[in-house]
Design goal:
191 residues, globular
């Protein structure tokens, strides 16, 4: 039985914070593999980038990490009733951890009850050190583990940096910048 994690996020785009969180989780929980599962459709995101571009950027960013893989499912959005059973079915022989941010966790918890399938997974949240005020005791169900990071960049900050052609911004991955410039993703042309 392998110890695997499925990292649920939009990866719009993948950035250093995502990789740092995955590496810390891998080392702390002795995970054999981590599967990055990008959400197909992005709700309420002003900088929507097609799944194909996000998967290509992930592929570039994950290349140096042999135990990091991409997982794609045919669901438009992450849901308790579709996404999680599919993950359990795919990795039925493995010990499964879920990696996610606080927003995804709350979205899942808002659509479930105390005895949900979500509570059958070991959940690890990636939070920035600024998020220490978040009170998880108010959220019903099993308490997730937390990995705090000093410099967890927010996707919108990364996207704005790319739009402003600030390619040296902290948190940007060189492989993502190279892909974005080559494919005109997130990039605005200035006169």
């Amino acid at each position: 039985m392998a110890k695997i994690a499925v990292y649920l996020a939009d990866f719009n785009p993948v950035h250093l914070g995502h990789l740092e969180f995955a590496l810390k989780a891998r080392d702390k929980y002795l995970l054999n593999r981590i599967y990055f599962l990008p959400e197909r459709n992005l709700s309420n995101n002003e900088y929507y980038v097609h799944l194909g571009h996000r998967v290509s950027m992930l592929r570039q960013a994950l290349r140096p990490h042999k135990n990091f893989k991409i997982l794609e499912l045919d669901y438009r959005f992450f849901t308790i009733n579709k996404t999680l059973p599919k993950i359990k079915e795919k990795f039925y022989d493995d010990e499964i951890y879920l990696l996610m941010d606080y927003k995804t966790y709350l979205r899942f918890k808002a659509t479930t009850n105390q005895n949900s399938i979500l509570d059958s997974f070991k959940i690890i949240l990636g939070l920035s050190s600024k998020d220490k005020k978040i009170n998880l005791m108010k959220v019903p169900g099993n308490m997730p583990d937390i990995i705090y990071q000093k410099n967890l960049m927010i996707n919108k900050q990364i996207q704005r940096a790319l739009f402003k052609n600030k390619f040296n911004e902290a948190g940007l991955l060189k492989s993502v910048v190279k892909y974005c410039v080559k494919n005109w993703v997130y990039i605005l042309i200035s006169d």
